[in-house]
Amino acid sequence: MADKKMIALVLALATGIVRAGMHSEPTAVGATLCPVGKKLKTGSYCTTNNCDTTRYTTTTCNSYAECMLDACYTPTTDVGACCVADTTKCGGLGSDPCSANAATKVYVHAKAGETAGSTAADKETNCCTARGTCPTTGFCPAGLKLRTNPNKCQGPTCDSALPADQYTCCEADTTKCGGLVPSPCSSTQFRDPTKAGETAGSTDTEKETNCCTAKGTCPTTGFCSAGMKLRTNPNKCAGAACVPASSDFCSSITGDDENTCCELDDTKCLYYAPGGASPVSCAAGKYFDTATAAGTATAAGGADKNTDCCTAKAACSASGTSCSAGYMKKSTLTDLYCTSSATNAASCSAICCEPDTTKCGGLSSNPCSSTQFRDPTKADATAGSDATAKKANCCTAKASCSNFVKGGTASGASKSETMLALTLGMFAVAALLS
Fold first, then answer.
1. Both 204 and 246 in a single domain?
2. How many structural domains compose the chain?
3. What DSSP element (H or E) covers 375?
4. Which of 42 and 350 is assigned the larger pLDDT?
5. pTM over 0.70
6. How many CB atoms sit inside 10 A of residue 87's CB?
7. What is the pLDDT of residue 433?
């Protein structure tokens, strides 16, 4: 399994960052800002008095198809409020129009605004694009070679940055270091991805010489994070150099060198964090402060941990403790404490305060109509004594979705949105190794 993981590492390092789908943006002044394939709802309202034209939040794609179908981009709340699928367009179809010939055709977001047609054949013709054919040369990364009879790629063109396309087109080249199974390296060596394209050789000695590099030794000083200390007899690191936690962005692949080299220091409070092997037990009115624990000293063995590692919480009765807007101090504050030493509302309101039913923010129910929203900026305003007053004092009119249009100067270019799709890479690697 470790040898297969190293092939995955070679593939992951060779592919780097996975590309994402591109969004088509409306370009004309006054055009609806609904995504392509959706249309404006009539008589609808945004969630507040200003329509959010951001349109999307991004999430990680789990497959190339999700990127092409726009499934990696979550529409904002106002898109949901103002827009509805346009079922006459490719982007508004409720099912994949390419499913009948999915092995050779794929839906891509570039066709989202195309007229779909009325029959299944029309929709396939208008909305689908032929999948790409694997290039015969120059495509596979070091350590891999072109398959004899590869399938079609994920999209219209084969993309060397997509691990899924690499899996489709390529297989291990067992004459190269990157294609060897099992690993030829000893326990003090690692399979060097920079040598993936080197000729492996025919003997075990040749393979070890040609494909392996010595693992790094843990530094004796200046390596471990605050609250940690060097292990007495640490193992070798994952690569040629030991990478500290502060810069090891690929720890899920390369291994966490800090865990190899370091362990919790029992002369620091971090060692005694709640949930650990020897957690503190703070008295009433005190708490374990994670922000300072790594740098706070205590006696080895933990004899003084409950004193040294526990910080006094702010008492609800203390001067300066705050409540959130629309809340007021409870009538009895005896033996009540904020969640930390801070006296702000974030620390104190949930425990020290209760709703002030004379204020908008303290009302137990929403006084607003369907065309209004409960305005958080009015949370501390006096609500009033009847429904009409509460609506007038606490609510603000929602913006009409007719405002959900593009203003300003027309642009002739579309805006692209990109993201990391690491999950896709892991999916392809798993498939390669299965």
1. no
2. 3
3. none
4. 350
5. no
6. 12
7. 37
